[in-house]
């Protein structure tokens, strides 16, 4: 019992010595902090946000063509000509370098008051395009949040594995010292020392590769957070997996909140409004015109050498298409096919999302069960290592048996971390499909 307690104390000291200095020296980044940082800094989210602002600016009655257009105009024409005029009585008048000047300026207003209801369909379409931009922004945010969380929890499992490898290196060093001491007093062969050294080098090599992968994944997370790639940090090791998710509830949320489904329905509505605008070209277009114009002319040769006028002009223009080479029929047929395709795409998207949800839920159930199983396996492997290390000290087991116990412990930790990671990712995928990730 005493030796067992000493073993626990020894393992606790290993973890404390190896891990605590790192945790105290570096930033502890939580998953919530990482998500908020990404929402604030991520470049793709910023781009999608600006695109939504563009859609909002475009959503106006003026852009739909409902408002009049007012233009201020100014025209100044000058000419120098050699002129010759023959009058009705036979007199001839000639002038070289005759100057003719005309100045016209004013304000004109044009207003399309009827275009077959096309402007109203266009305005409704602009509203739908704004909704489309809003959903696309939410989809981008949801995707990036999911990427951040996935990368974060990947770091969690890697950090746990590195600590396990740190621990096994400490144990391997103790084993090497024990083997060297036994060799010196003649209780072990040189081969035992060499085997211990080889295993220690193997553990160091594995740890080195794991640190490389850990560093690369950190860079990836910093990239998602749009901050200095060299920023170092540690992640929180506790991973809480929600193992209570129910398929029926997720289906209900998916029908209401799935962004892909919402986007498909908006695209269908946009296609319908395109068809409505195309049909409006069959109707007349009525446009009101008015303006106030000033005109001044000056002629060097002629009956009138100077004129000026000012006044109001107004009128109405109406046009109706009669024949345009069957383009109207063709355009309507194409627009109808686009509406039909948008309906098919919406149905296809619904089927695809439901299939993704069903598959992801099955994977989730499996991963949750595996996480529970591997957690139990890690506890057993740890207990086995404690007993094996105790027996190795007194020389009642072989080095091969000790090494097997050591490797089993590390592998159990790796499998447990991986199982928790996969279970958490399955949870994130389900919440993403249901549009229910909280941030």
From TrEMBL:
This is TolC family protein. Its main location: membrane. Belongs to the outer membrane factor (OMF) (TC 1.B.17) family. Pfam families: OEP. One of its GO terms (cellular component) is efflux pump complex. One of its GO terms (molecular function) is efflux transmembrane transporter activity. The keyword Transport applies.
